[in-house]
From TrEMBL:
PANTHER family: HYDROLASE YCAC-RELATED
Residue ranges constituting the Isochorismatase-like domain according to the UniProt record: 16-165
Protein name per the record: Isochorismatase family protein
Highest taxon listed in the record's lineage: Bacteria
InterPro entries per the UniProt record, alphabetical: Hydrolase_YcaC-like, Isochorismatase-like_dom, Isochorismatase-like_sf
Coiled coil: none
C-alpha cells in the first residue's frame, strides 16, 4: 500500500521550505561555486512558483551578522519572511512550524544555508515527526566538502531523501503533457545547460508553426 514516503512529489502534496539563505551565511559557503548556488536557488524557487507549490521562508538573526534573505528568493516567493526569535533549529520556531502545518502537506522540499546546521537540524526534526523531507543539497551550501558529506550521510541515515533541485523539478513535473510541463521545462532550461536543448526545440517548433 502506498504511503507518504513512497508517493512521488506533486504540486498538490508538497511545500517548499527555504531556511536561512541569508547574505552573511552565503558568503561563507565554499563547497559550491557562488554563481552555481545562486542558479540552483533560483531554479528551486521558480520551480515552486511555477508549479503552484506553497512556501515558507525563514531567517535567523537577520539584523545581525547572518544578514537578510537573498533578494532572489523574496523576489520570487514574496516578502514574507519568518524571522526567528533565536532558534537555530528552524523546526523549533513555533511560527515556522505553524506555517508548514498550515499547508496540510506532509512532503517538505527543504534547502538551507548552512547544510550541516540550517538544513540538517530541521530535516531531522521534521522526519522524526512523520514528515517526508527532500533535502535539496545543491540549493544549500556549507563550509567545505567534508562538512557537506557528513551532513548528507546523517540525513540519509535518518530517512531524509537527499536530492537535487533538478530531480525535484522532474518529479513534480512527471509528464510533459502536464499543464505545467513546458513551463517547468523552461525553468530547468533557464538555470542549467538544458537550456540549449530547450532553445533548440523551441526554435524548431517555431519553424514548423511558420511553415504551416
Amino acid at each position: 500500500m502506498s504511503d507518504k514516503f513512497s508517493e512521488f512529489l506533486t504540486p498538490d502534496n508538497a511545500v517548499l521550505a527555504m531556511i536561512d539563505h541569508q547574505t552573511g551565511l552565503l558568503a561563507s559557503v565554499r563547497d559550491i561555486q557562488p554563481e552555481t548556488l545562486r542558479k540552483n536557488i533560483n531554479g528551486l524557487t521558480n520551480m515552486a512558483k511555477t508549479a503552484g507549490i506553497p512556501s515558507a521562508v525563514t531567517a535567523s538573526l537577520s539584523e545581525g551578522p547572518n544578514g537578510p534573505i537573498l533578494s532572489d528568493i523574496t523576489n520570487v516567493l514574496g516578502d514574507t519572511v519568518i524571522n526567528r526569535a533565536g532558534e537555530i533549529n528552524a523546526w523549533k520556531s513555533p511560527e515556522f512550524k505553524a506555517a508548514i502545518e498550515a499547508t496540510g502537506r506532509k512532503k517538505i522540499i527543504m534547502a538551507g544555508i548552512v547544510t550541516d546546521v540550517c538544513l540538517l537540524f530541521p530535516a531531522l526534526s521534521a522526519v522524526a515527526e512523520g514528515y517526508d523531507v527532500y533535502a535539496v543539497v545543491d540549493a544549500s551550501g556549507t563550509w567545505d566538502d567534508a562538512t557537506r558529506d557528513a551532513a548528507m550521510l546523517r540525513m540519509s541515515q535518518a530517512g531524509v531523501k537527499v536530492t537535487t533541485w533538478g530531480s525535484v523539478l522532474a518529479e513534480v513535473m512527471d509528464d510533459w503533457r502536464n499543464p505545467v510541463g513546458y513551463p517547468l521545462g523552461g525553468v530547468l532550461g533557464g538555470h542549467t545547460a538544458y537550456g540549449l536543448v530547450y532553445e533548440s526545440y523551441l526554435a524548431q517548433q517555431a519553424q514548423q508553426d511558420s511553415a504551416e
